[in-house]
């Protein structure tokens, strides 16, 4: 298969004002990023509201949830919200779903929902994925005035790392984000992609692979270690792919190699490094 072209996303969660949030979205669009991704936590902007505001301030920038934990929502609510955002964004939604990130158990009680066992949460995600597809297709073809702008449904992104999640994502997703710990090495990343390739079989080439860059460069803010749970300097010494270092050309070469060898063509970056990665985006986006 010919390698996919590169696209880049910014992961952002907070802004001091509506104007600042929409300004960030416009800046990302102007710099050549394809997507603004918003996480779903109790300490950040509610993703559907934030992404709707971003979509109204931009023309081509896609918006995506990164990701909605399935245990937080009744599946029908995911469909309803996604239909609205896909319509209001003019068909620019990527719907990201997952089974619940580490730490989400402490938040789900505020949603008056239960955070089940890993197996139960994978089942919840599977049910949500099926309902999204079925109800979106029914809305597209039925008499409801609320219809998806993208047919039969928006692209679906699933965050996955383990075997069970790889099996589900390989069967149901359009995009898979590799939800690996920041300390994962280059060899560890390659091993996970190889595992996914085996599980996905003939569907592997249909999947767009996403990987999240937590930091760019060697001059990293001290609080990043708290966010990541590991010392970024240690990751730099180990050459962990979650931190991208080097000149613009060296960083671009690293991403090209991962794309050509592993198939990772969709790169997300922490919003605080929007500007630092911009020269690489200019060099690689769409190539």
From TrEMBL:
Residues 18-202 form the Luciferase-like domain. Gene3D superfamilies: Luciferase-like domain. Keywords: Flavoprotein, FMN, Monooxygenase, Oxidoreductase. CDD domains: Tetrahydromethanopterin_reductase. InterPro entries: Lucif-like_OxRdtase_MSMEG_2516 (IPR019923), Luciferase-like_dom (IPR011251), Luciferase-like_sf (IPR036661), SsuD_RutA_monooxygenase (IPR050172). This is TIGR03621 family F420-dependent LLM class oxidoreductase. The lineage of its organism: Bacteria, Bacillati, Actinomycetota, Actinomycetes, Catenulisporales.
